[in-house]
Amino acid sequence: MIMLEKLAKQTAIYGISTIVVRFLNYLLTPYYTRIFDQGEYGIVTDIYALIPFALVILSMGMESSYFRFTTRAEEAGGDVKEGKRRVFATTWGVTSLAATLFFVVVLILSAPISKVMGEAYVLHPEYVPIVAAIVMLDIWAIIPFARLREQGRALRFVALKALGMLLNVGLAIGFGVAGLYSTEFGVGWVLIANLVASVVTFIALIPTVDRTLPRIDRELLRRIFVYSLPLLISGIAGTANEFIDRQMIKYLSPGSEAEAMAELGVYGAIVKIAVVMTLFTQMYRLAAEPFFLSGFKKEEFKEANAAAMKYFVMASVVIFLGIVLFRDLFALIVGSRFREGIDILPVVLASNVLCGIWLNLSFWYKREEKTKYAAYITFLGLGITIALSFLLVPKMGYRGAAWVRFAAEGAMVVWSYILCRKHYPMPYDLRRIGEYAAIAIVAYGLSELLLRSLDHMLWLGCNVAIFGLVIAFAIWREKIDVKALVRAALSKFRR
Fold first, then answer.
1. pLDDT tens digits, residue range 54-92?
2. For the segment 238-281, what is each residue's pLDDT rounded down to a tens digit?
3. Please, which residues have CB within 8 angstroms of residue 55's CB and are 6 or more apart in sequence?
4. In terms of Cα–Cα distance, which of 348, 346, 412 is closest to 380?
5. What is the distance between the alpha carbons of residues 81 and 73, in angstroms, rounded to a whole number?
6. How far apart are CA 367 and CA 298, in angstroms?
7. Which residue has the higher pLDDT, 468 or 238?
8. How many CB atoms are closer than 10 A to CB 453?
9. CB–CB of 201/160 below 8 Å?
């Protein structure tokens, strides 16, 4: 329980701050979906789906490797500080080199790359090098940010992230007020705001590296690559799973290229509505990854991971129902032209829940350095995504893409669990997890049945009652002392 309290504390620090920071960023969603049409927002969706893919490739699994090899440095004894410094300098050096080479290549080949990406980019080939510069700066910052997490400097981590986010949001809104989005450069000003924020963030991050310069230790890098290569392969496949749905909409949707970009815009907007679930999964990952990859005993790891899985599912169910039961309110986040796709919101949310479950199931093979399993699982998901996309997207458009992602995430969870049970049995409380999953399905189904027979306001009132009962059940089932939690929170607040 002490370990879980530590994890919960870190999750709370990352969580509260991440929610605040990301909420500011997501304020741009209602803003952009009201000043851009569906096609223009489709470009934004397309670009910000491709950026994470580039980040995964260029980071080469070095973030997880950094956590693992700093733990090794502690276990080895001797000059631990110097050992960690070597790991930092090497991982930072190789990622920075890769990012710089990427930018140079894209700068040289920007014209042909624009043609491949589609008509919207042919009209604005300057978008491509700007995106490449953003990617380069973000890669330069990945390992320094990982170092802050490893050192437990959560507040510094969040403060620097907040700086970049606030600057991005401020510039984006300022450009809109100045009327720049209506100029020929249009969406490009979104990228300029991001670029400026990335530059400032990296400059502010430099003092945290303690005068350590990127320097590659070849022997250390060889050992790191043995560990990280499967993570890189799985990361590529995993991120492809997350962005390829956008590309399939772009290239497989029925109709013209303009209509496809409009579909992509609607899909991207609905995905943004699921921000709360995305934030929860992300804040959990930020805290859990260094926590579960630290060096503690096998049985302690199993106990902590099993308990974390149960509470993660419980929290995910509450968030899922909180959004789907009141989706009419969440739909107001996006402009009216984008609300036609609100029916896919439950599917998108469920996919995010499955993604978080898979995250929990992945820690054992990262800890045991059997990262090859990551490649097996993610390639399964990618194969399902590609195969089903060709079947469903041409017929159903973005709705088909939503169901494809759900199927892929579900398959990855199932196979992850099978591998875990075979190679590293965990004491997961499947009965309790099943209870929460069943509650989510029943509560959502009941709400949908009531929608067909009740006045809208009465239906909302019933949803409030359903949601309250679910929360009450979770508190009762887990014997959560709400009063103690409130007192502890108030005490920390006073201090």
1. 888 898 888 878 887 887 777 666 677 888 888 888 989
2. 677 767 888 888 888 877 777 888 888 888 888 888 877 777 77
3. 135, 138, 139, 142, 239
4. 412
5. 8
6. 10
7. 468
8. 8
9. yes
Whether the Cβ atoms of residue 470 and residue 443 lie closer than 8 Å to each other: yes
CB 279 within 8 A of CB 20: no
In sequence order, which residues have a C-beta less than 8 Å from that of residue 123 and are 6 or more positions away?
Answer: none
Q: What are phi and psi of 395, to 5 degrees?
A: -95, -40
| Alpha carbon separation from 378 to 61, 182, 231, 254 (Å, rounded) | 14, 41, 10, 28
Q: What are 180's two structure tokens?
A: 């720049």
In total, the chain counts a number of residues equal to 495
| pLDDT score, position 348 | 92
Give the whole-angstrom CA distance, residue 409 versus residue 361: 12
Whether the predicted model's global pTM rises above the 0.90 cut = no
Backbone angles phi, psi at 494, to 5 degrees: -65, -40
Residue with tokens 């997961």: 428
Token code pair at residue 400: 């088909």
Amino acid at 210: D
Give the separation between CA 289 and CA 359, rounded to whole angstroms.
Answer: 9
Tell me the two tokens of residue 252. Answer: 């497989």
Tokens of 16: 């509260």
Q: What's the mean pLDDT in 348-370? A: 84
Which residue ranges make up each domain of the chain?
2-494
Contact 346, 325 (CB under 8 A): no
Whether the per-residue pLDDT at 400 is higher than 80: the answer is yes
Token look-up 């720049």 returns 180
| CB contact at 8 A, 386 and 375 | no
CA distance 82 to 215: 13
450 vs 460: CA distance, rounded Å: 10
3-state secondary structure 102-137: HHHHHHHCHHHHHHHHCHHHHHCCCHHHHHHHHHHH
Name, in order, each residue with C-beta under 8 angstroms of 136's C-beta and a sequence gap of 6 or more.
99, 100, 102, 103
Q: Which residue has the higher pLDDT, 338 or 489?
A: 338
Structure tokens at 487: 């007192």
Instruction: Name every residue whose Cβ is closer than 8 Å to that of residue 337 and which is 6 or more positions away in sequence.
Output: 33, 37, 38
**How far is residue 478's CA from residue 168's CA, in Å, rounded to a whole number?**
41
Task: DSSP for 337-401, please give it.
Answer: GGGGGGGGHHHHHHHHHHHHHHHHHHHHHHHTT-THHHHHHHHHHHHHHHHHHHHHHHHHTHHHH
